[in-house]
Amino acid sequence: MLTKVIEQAKIDHFSKWFERADKIVIVSHVSPDGDAIGSSLGLYHFLDSQEKTVNVIVPNAFPDFLRWMPGSKDILLYDRYKDFADKLIAEADVICCLDFNALKRIDDMADAVVASPARKIMIDHHLYPEDFCKIVMSYPKISSTSELIFRLICRMGYFSDITKEGAECIYTGMMTDTGGFTYNSNNREIYFIISELLSKGIDKDDIYRKVYNTYSESRLRLMGYVLSNMTVYPDCNSALITLTKAEQSKFNYIKGDSEGFVNIPLSIKNVCFSCFLREDTEKPMIKISLRSVGTFPCNQLAAEFFNGGGHLNASGGEFFGTMEEAKAVFEKALEKYKPLLTAKS
Ligand code: 5GP
Ligand code: MN
């Protein structure tokens, strides 16, 4: 049995909207990851099975390794089909905001979502939800939004209507937001849910291979290159990897190719904090990815130095300036956080 994480009043409230709604739009965050796409499509398959008119809209493209997901071809990219997406958002009865807590996380879509008269619900697991949705299902202790989608559908009484396709999407989000169940994954209920998803006929081992083992040769060579240039800061138990635009073109970089790189330095003994600085291909900025193991709060460092945020162990931000400048800011941040980084836990 699962704990009732979502308050009953919120389930009842959403159930009322759900009964009356026909047109439902699901939106998720910029540079969608496995949980953004997994939770969106998990909910999409459920709503579709209930004869609703459902559309999933995300701000921009998602990585190739998520393209196998059932329903992914129907996802609308806002940066390519803005007018059509604006119309769907404006005419929706209900908008479900998944896997993000702040309007700036949906970029240019924010204006349309705010302006829409639709009823809005947030289903998310990031700290400090902003106040732009009437129903807020925000549970930072839950390791993925996809898990919340499973819990929501079950609590509404529709477990039997979850299809194999829907279960595959939910599983993918749960898997990717926990690094294949290697972090934030000690809650035993996760494994109860997996067991329920397996009862729908999913092949979890195949999903793992499709997500993690279908990369290109050049991606692996890029990984080798990035790691060979890694800087380790033994005094701070930290490591830094970087990737410029010039280096990206040398390795025929495509979106998603550097996914997971930031985790690799954490496999060095004693390294508990890792930073990845990557020049963005779309905007003139450097994208920051931070990961930690244990209690080091990378979200605090992200907020203080990189105008970002996120989870304790996985966060990010943005930097407008050169790679050298970003690296200098990172080293300044290391100095400041050295006591925490070297504290014995
Ligand atoms: P990633 O390193 O995978 O891009 O991001 C990891 C996590 O950090 C995301 O799930 C999200 O919670 C957070 N994050 C990433 N980029 C930003 C950002 O620019 N601003 C904020 N507030 N959070 C971010
Ligand atoms: Mn997530």
From TrEMBL:
Domain DHHA1, first and last residues per copy: 250-333
Domain DDH per the UniProt entry, residue ranges: 23-174
One protein family per Pfam: DHHA1
Name listed for the protein in its UniProt record: Bifunctional oligoribonuclease/PAP phosphatase NrnA
MF terms in GO: nucleic acid binding
InterPro entries: DDH_dom (IPR001667), DHH_sf (IPR038763), DHHA1_dom (IPR003156), Oligoribo/pAp-PDE_c-di-AMP_PDE (IPR051319)
Native organism: Bacteroides xylanisolvens
